[in-house]
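>> received
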Amino acid sequence: MKKITLTLIFCGLTLTAKSQHASVEKSTYGIQTGFLGIWAHNETKLSNQIVLRSEIGFDTGIWGGTFYDKTGYVFAPVTTLEPRWYYNLNKRAKKDRRIDGNSGNFISLKTSYHPDWFVISNYDNVRIVSDISIVPTWGIRRNIGNHFTYETGIGIGYLYYFAKDAGYSENESDVAVNLHLRIGYRF
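>> returned
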């Protein structure tokens, strides 16, 4: 009888250990770069699967053609707040795949603001029109080694230009597209 009781207790402890829920990290910091920019970010845990990502950085614009003396570029500051739901952490943990550094698939609501504070450009007197965008996004993040990550995402949403502040007669709205591929370093 003691052997059966000990066996049942051992099996019960094993099942309890396996039924624990995977969770995002409490807080993680990093930098990322992609084809059109560089960003620093923080992800703060709100629940086991939801984080609030805050990000500052520079988005890049490039232009050129026969009307310009040279190809132009602009680096404009951007601030982003993005709640993310990492929806497949338990599935990844059950398959013994990495979830450290919030490695997993996510759905987010990316909200970005481009202020007209300053720009860095190879042309003089370049200004941007301030805008705000809200883009539902699906994406993935994976680890490369202990500190490096890569991330990709895609989404379509809403973009609003504050054109009156820049001297235009009325503000404008448009469709915003978020298509990103980034490589980063996690601290």
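>> The domain at 23-186 is CATH 2.40.160 (Porin).
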